[in-house]
Amino acid sequence: MPESIVLSPPPVFFIKSISEQGYSLSTAVADLVDNSITAGARRIELLINANVSPLRLYIADDGCGMTSEELTANMRFPSADLDAGRAGNDLGRFGLGLKTGSFSQARRFTLVSSKSGAPYQARTWDVGYLKKTEDWTLIIEEETATEKLLQDFAETSADFHGRSESFVPRTIVIWDDLYKLERLKKQSEINDELEELRSHLGLVFHRFLQAGKIEIRLNNSLVEGFDPFPVNATGVQIISEDYWQSGDTFIRFQGIILPKRAAIEAREEISVWAPPGKTLEDCQGIYVYRNERLISYGGWLRTITRTIWLQFGRLKIDITNINDSEFHLNVAKSSLKLPFGLKRAMAIMISSVAGQASKEYRERLASGVTRSNTTKKGLSLITRENSAAGPVLRISHDFELLRQLESQLNAEQQEMLRTVTSLLEKKLNQVWKGDTAAPSEIGEGVAEADRQKISRLKKYYEEAGYSADEIREFLLESFGQNNDVKTFLETLY
Ligand SMILES: Nc1ncnc2c1ncn2[C@@H]1O[C@H](COP(=O)(O)OP(=O)(O)O)[C@@H](O)[C@H]1O
Ligand SMILES: [Mg+2]
Q1: Which domain of life is it from (predicted)?
Q2: Which atom of ligand 1 is nearest to the CA of 63?
Q3: In the chain, where the domains are located
Q4: Multiple choice CATH, 11-222, 3.20.20.60, 3.30.565.10, 3.40.309.10, 3.30.310.50
């Protein structure tokens, strides 16, 4: 036997590094919801009272629960062999999600469970305790402590309206010392995170939710499923399904193209086209479902590049956990790669979705909905006009991109943009006429439009902290070193 020593990882270092695997609050909670679904749960209750400090999050389900031995075994890092077979409906992968997902958000977490009517048992991993013991010491909660946890859960649930009396939790995961959420100072930021969580769960579990297989409640309010493939909505074009064979399994894929009106309707608070808080642009691309659970969306998985032109295109792929290693699924179940063979098999469908989607986008631009009155106007950035003093160049605000940009700005931002373009216009004309010297000294007063611009610019630059002299110099340089401008500037000071 060669000489050897046992070199175990220091628990705290190990936990910190393994838990930063690309989790957000949403993906971490989704990983625990996966566990609940795999455990056969029909109801999943998420509770967090954002008004109480310190924060605590409960994820409870009515699934099969765990025995005392199972509880201990499942708290281990990792709890299963990656290469061991998994049931076809298992949403787990590495035997890690419970631990890494929890530690990505919490410094302490407890797993409470009961199986077949046996008394509840609880186990806790606590970074503070691990630091002290410097070993992988799992806390076995005493009976009174376990009862206290169950009681706190019941009380938190009762604090929210609409408590459902019939819910009996079999398993509760409790996150304490929520160091990431605690960092958010404002209540509204915590609420935004929770809304993001609601939207994420509604999207990734929509097939389960919409088929009535499960119910998820966040603070006792039902999470609504959101289907990104609204194939029954009027105007949606469907590209017929195709498949790629990998060994004995068939991987199905299908594309859809949303109708033009989606672009406008998706801006509403609630629409069939985009989940709350997301735009059509965010939602384009390839959606990969693994055992009915959405694991990847919002991009084209390195097949083509996302652009505004493709916002009407979506494509879904259905895989099972048999395909995991081919797809290089990561621990957070949030990223994956398409196998080369599948990419090749999908090439035609991808290009037809992309082609149709960008055609739809072009037509939308051309349709009366957003387009300026005349076609030509929208195509020229610089136009030539005849003025009393001869031809001048103008930057056209009918230019399609400028018009679209403007339409997304508020009044104040529009004004700033107009000021910038008018300055550009002045420079442009000077350069065009080869007239880079100071403009004419013979003034006929400063035009009203210029007066307004000068006043506005002065205000912007003052707010930005420039000195009076710097602003004066800049305004003279921009509007002409002549006496009229000088006189007008005097009136402003
Ligand atoms: N809510 C739950 N109900 C019942 N069993 C659970 C629950 N959560 C986790 N488990 C058990 O703990 C194991 C470990 O979970 P996890 O660390 O997420 O790894 P994985 O899901 O990849 O197996 C699961 O395989 C399952 O047996
Ligand atoms: Mg899991």
Answers
A1: Bacteria
A2: 3
A3: 11-222, 237-366, 375-492
A4: 3.30.565.10
Rounded distance from Cα 91 to ligand 2 centre (Å): 7
201-252 tens-digit pLDDT: 999 999 999 999 999 999 999 999 999 999 999 999 999 899 999 888 899 9
* CATH class name, domain 237-366: alpha beta
Q: What confidence category does residue 13 fall into, taking pLDDT thresholds of 50, 70 and 90?
A: very high
> If residue 113 lies in a helix (H) or strand (E), which one and from where to where?
strand 108-113
For residue 80, the ligand closest to its alpha carbon is 1
C-alpha of residue 62 to centroid of ligand 2, in Å: 16
CA of 51 to the centre of ligand 1 (A): 30
Instruction: Quickly tell me which residue has 């930063």 as its tokens.
Output: 20
Q: How far apart are CA 250 and CA 242, in angstroms?
A: 10
CA of 64 to the centre of ligand 1 (A): 11
Report DSSP letters for 260-301, one per residue. Answer: TTHHHHTTSSS-SSS-TT--HHHH-EEEEEETTEEEE-SS-T
247: CB partners within 8 A, 6+ apart: none
User: Atom of ligand 1 at shortest distance to CA of 99?
Assistant: 17
pLDDT tens digit sequence for 259-304: 999 998 888 878 999 998 889 999 999 999 999 999 999 899 999 9
Ligand 2: distance of its center to the CA of 244 in Å?
Answer: 28
Looking at the CA of 79, name the nearest ligand: 1
C-alpha torsion sign, points 349, 350, 351, 357: positive
- Of ligand 1's listed atoms, the one at least distance from the Cα of 96 is 17
Which atom of ligand 1 is found nearest the CA of 36? 1
Instruction: Give pTM, 2 decimals.
Output: 0.75
